[in-house]
Amino acid sequence: MATNTKIEWTETTWNPVTGCTKISDGCTNCYAYTMAKRLHAMGNVRYKNEFNVTIHRDLIERPLTWKRPRMVFVNSMSDLFHEDIGFNTISEIFDVMREASQHTFQILTKRTKRMLELAPYLPWPDNVWQGVTVEKSKYHYRINDLRKVPAKVKFISFEPLLGPMPEINLENIEWAIAGGESGINARPVDIAWLRQVRDQCIQFDVPFFFKQWGGVRKTRERLLDNESWNQYPLCKSM
C-alpha cells in the first residue's frame, strides 16, 4: 500500500504492514486506528483484520517499482518494530529500502527497546532515517535509545505534544518535528511547550519543523501566526 499523503514532512506512505496496539499516551486518539476502523467498514480488503497487525507481502517490494525519487514514510498505519512483526519481515523491508536507494525512507517508532534489540542485525543504508515519537517528557529515554542506532539521520516527532519538554538532549539528532493533536477529541497543546522544543532546537542547531496546531486553537494562538516557527524547517540531509 503506497499513497500520496497530506503529511507535510513526507511525500508518500508505504504500508507493507498495517495494524498496531496502543502503548503510550500519544496512542489514545490514534488516527491510524480510527482510519483502519473506517476502511474496514467500507470493505477495504487491506483492513479485513481491522487494526490487528497484518503483513501485506505483495507490497513489500513496491518501492522497487517507483522510478522517481521520493520521501517515503514507512508504516504510517503501523509501527515497524511492533512485537508481532517478525524479524524476517523487518529484515526484508530493510533490504528493499537498501536496494531502492533512489528513495529516502522515514521510519517512526515508539518501540525503541525492540528497535535497539534488532538494530545490530539490520542494514542501515544512508537513505533510511530512523525517528522516535516523544509526546511527553517521561519518554525522553526514547531519544537516548535513538542515539544508539546507526542511522545516518535520526529524528524526533514531538507529536502529539502533550506536555512540557524541558532539558531535551538533542545531541546527534538531525531533525525535529512538533505539533498538536488532530481529530475531534484532540487534547490541547500549550504554545509554551512548542516554544520549548523550538528554542532548544535552535540551541542545538537542529532543524525544526512545526507541523500543526492540532485541535481547536485559542484566540491568543491565532494572533501568533506570524511568529517564526520554521526557522529551520528541513533536515540538513534533505
Report on the architecture of this protein.
With 238 residues, this protein is α/β, with parallel strands linked by helices. 24% of the residues lie in helices and 18% in strands. It has six helices and ten strands, in the order E-E-E-H-E-E-H-E-H-E-H-E-E-H-E-H. It has helices at residues 31-41, 87-99, 112-118, 141-147, 191-204, 219-222, and strands spanning 2-4, 12-14, 17-18, 54-55, 71-74, 104-109, 128-133, 153-158, 175-179, 208-212. The strands form two sheets. It has an eight-stranded mixed β-sheet. Strands 3-4 form a two-stranded antiparallel ribbon. The longest helix is centred in the C-terminal third of the chain and has 14 residues, at 191-204. Mean pLDDT is 90; it is low at 218-226 and 231-238.
Question: Could you give a quick summary of the protein structure above?
Answer:
It contains six helices and ten strands, in the order E-E-E-H-E-E-H-E-H-E-H-E-E-H-E-H. It has helices at residues 31-41, 87-99, 112-118, 141-147, 191-204, 219-222, and strands at 2-4, 12-14, 17-18, 54-55, 71-74, 104-109, 128-133, 153-158, 175-179, 208-212.
Look at the structure and give the mean pLDDT. 90
Describe the sheet with the most strands. Answer: 8 strands, mixed
Query: Strand pairing plus helix content: what structural class?
Result: alpha/beta
Number of strands: 10
Strand portion, in percent? 15-25%
Contiguous runs where pLDDT drops below 50 for at least 5 residues:
218-226, 231-238
Helix residue percentage: 10-25%
Order of helices and strands: EEEHEEHEHEHEEHEH
Distance between the termini: 24 Å
Number of helices: 6
C-alpha-based Rg, rounded: 17 Å
Strand order of the largest sheet: 1-2-5-6-7-8-9-10
Q: What would the principal axes of the Cα set say about the shape?
A: globular
